[in-house]
């Protein structure tokens, strides 16, 4: 499979990656509860909110905007400026793992190092087992046919279950 990643790919997969992290979901839940409690207190009191209450009213929306828009866009812009990250890549699957090759380098992601395959509408993310902040992604547009995509999924499933 061949593809050339772009800035939009990086922004999209970073949003997906941040969303799937348990820490992000826990933070969002805590902030949502705090937001609701502060909102309730402000309405019950009927007085203008204090500075403390204002901070807690603005913190959850800011966290969401930062986590899912500002940070992915910033990192995607950095990736787009790195020629090694936006050059055509070729993925080949074997019993050893996923070989990812570009004109700059070649790396083998062994099956034993892959924690999970995250499937979305537009991408597949291979999450790293040892480094929870690391992943590789493959846009679904890289497949030349539905059969090729089906074969990819079968191989990944086979080797992940075996590992």
Number of helices: 4
Strand content: 15-25%
CATH superfamily of the largest domain: Pleckstrin-homology domain (PH domain)/Phosphotyrosine-binding domain (PTB)
**Shape label:** elongated
Terminal Cα separation, in Å?
23 Å
The total number of structural domains is 2
Task: Assign the structural class, choosing from mainly alpha, mainly beta, alpha/beta, alpha+beta, or little secondary structure.
Answer: alpha+beta
Number of strands: 7
Strand arrangement across the biggest beta sheet: 1-2-3-4
Q: What's the mean pLDDT score? A: 93
CATH architecture of the largest domain: Roll
Q: What composes the largest sheet?
A: 4 strands, antiparallel
Order of helices and strands: EHHHEEEEEEH
Q: Share of helix among residues?
A: 40-55%
Q: Do you know the CATH topology of the largest domain?
A: PH-domain like
Please write the CATH class name of the largest domain. Answer: Mainly Beta
Q: Indicate the radius of gyration in whole angstroms.
A: 20 Å
Report the uncertain regions: none
Structure description:
The chain has 163 residues and is an alpha+beta fold. The protein has 2 domains: 77 residues; 78 residues, PH-domain like. The protein is built from 4 helices and 7 strands, in the order E-H-H-H-E-E-E-E-E-E-H. The strands form 2 sheets. The protein has a 4-stranded antiparallel beta sheet with strand order 1-2-3-4, with helices on one face. The protein has a 3-stranded antiparallel beta sheet with strand order 5-6-7, sandwiched between helices. Strand 3 and strand 4 form a beta hairpin. Helix 1 packs across helix 3 and helix 2 packs antiparallel against helix 3. The model has no long low-confidence stretch (mean pLDDT 93).
